[in-house]
Amino acid sequence: MKIKTTLLDENSIKRTLTRISHEIIEKNQGIENVILVGIKRRGYPIAKRIAKLIEEIEGVKVPVGNVDITLYRDDLTALDEQPIVNNEEMGIGVKNKIVILVDDVLYTGRTARAAIDAVIHHGRPERIQLAVLVDRGHRELPIRADYVGKNIPTAKKELVSVEVSEIDGEDLVNIYEK
Questions:
Q1: Among 10, 13, 37, 83, which is least packed by CB within 10 angstroms?
Q2: What are the chain's domains?
Q3: CA-to-CA distance for 66 and 48, rounded, in angstroms?
Q4: CA atoms within 13 A on the CB side of 82
Q5: CA 65 to CA 101: how far, in whole Å?
Q6: Measured between alpha carbons, how far is 33 from 168 in angstroms, rounded to an integer?
Q7: The whole model's pTM is what?
Q8: Are 51 and 20 in contact (CB under 8 A)?
Q9: Pick from 114, 56, 106, 38: which is nearest to 83 by CA?
C-alpha cells in the first residue's frame, strides 16, 4: 500500500482529543454519571486519554471500561458478516449511566452497532453516545457519532490507519491507497 497523506500527527491528535473532551463535558453539562467505554483495540487507549483529559479539566476521574469486538474490518478484509463481541465483562457497570463509546475510525457503523448491543446486554444505560477520532463516511447503518475528531471523505479503496503510542509506538493517522 502507498501512503496518500498524513491526516493527523501526534500534536493534532492531542488537540483533537482535548476538544472532544471539552465537547463531552459541555454536551453532558459536566461529567456526573458519565463513563467511557473504549472499543478495543485502539478505541480503548483513546478512551483512557479522554478520561485523563477530562480529569485534568474537571478534577474528577471518569470510569473507563472496554468492549472487545472482532472487527468487521471492511477497510482491510471481511472477517465475518457481523462484528462479534469477544469479552463478557466491560470492567464497569453501565446501568443508568451516560455511556460514551470511543473508537478510532467510524466507517460502515457495524462495529459501533455491535458495541451498542454489548453495552445494552450489560444493563440499561441512561444514554449512549459515540466519540470517534476519524469519521470516514460510507455508512451502511443509521449510525452517527456525537463527537468527531476529523471528518474525512474517503474512497472505499482507501485505508484509514490510526496508530496510538500505547499499541504502535507512535500517534499518527494516515490514509493509504490500496
A1: 10
A2: 2-26+34-177 (3.40.50.2020)
A3: 10
A4: 8
A5: 9
A6: 32
A7: 0.90
A8: no
A9: 114
